[in-house]
Amino acid sequence: MSAPVEDRRESWDGPVPVPTGATVPFWAATLEGTLRYQACDCGNRQLYPRAVCTDCGAEDPPFEDSEGVGTIYTYTVCHVPGEPGFADRTPYVVGAIELDEGPRLLALLDADPDDLEIGAAVSVTFWRVSDEAAMPVFVPE
Ligand SMILES: [Zn+2]
């Protein structure tokens, strides 16, 4: 899977992820348009990346590439910006996205709030916001 990566480094005013520790392989893949999750040998799949498996405690669970598609588990429409850099972006939508592979992540939903519904199919795209990271952003299928 390789999703589009749109360069927003010039215009992005929001928070910028700083890759550290277990998140380094995750953010490196985003620059190539790939969304990765951790798939532990015990069967647990998790996202965001962590140094240990949340189920069995194994260290450094390996990464697998997601197909980048899933459904809206739930979402909220933000009318008051959670970050100063989002002030001129309101209303914006934050969703809990359930990937087809199982893990859920919180991400921006780039869509008109009136067009969204729980359970709807979405796919990932990326906004490059720094030299080190591209944010996963989901759009309706
Ligand atoms: Zn495990």
TrEMBL record:
Cite the ChsH2 C-terminal OB-fold domain residue spans from the record.
65-126
Occurrences of domain ChsH2 rubredoxin-like zinc ribbon (ranges): 27-60
Q: Which residue ranges traverse the bilayer?
A: none
Matches recorded under InterPro entries: ChsH2_C (IPR002878), ChsH2_Znr (IPR022002), NA-bd_OB-fold (IPR012340), Thioester_dehydratase-like (IPR052513)
Q: Which Pfam families match?
A: OB_ChsH2_C, zf-ChsH2
PANTHER family per record: BLR3430 PROTEIN
Q: Write the protein's name.
A: Zn-ribbon domain-containing OB-fold protein
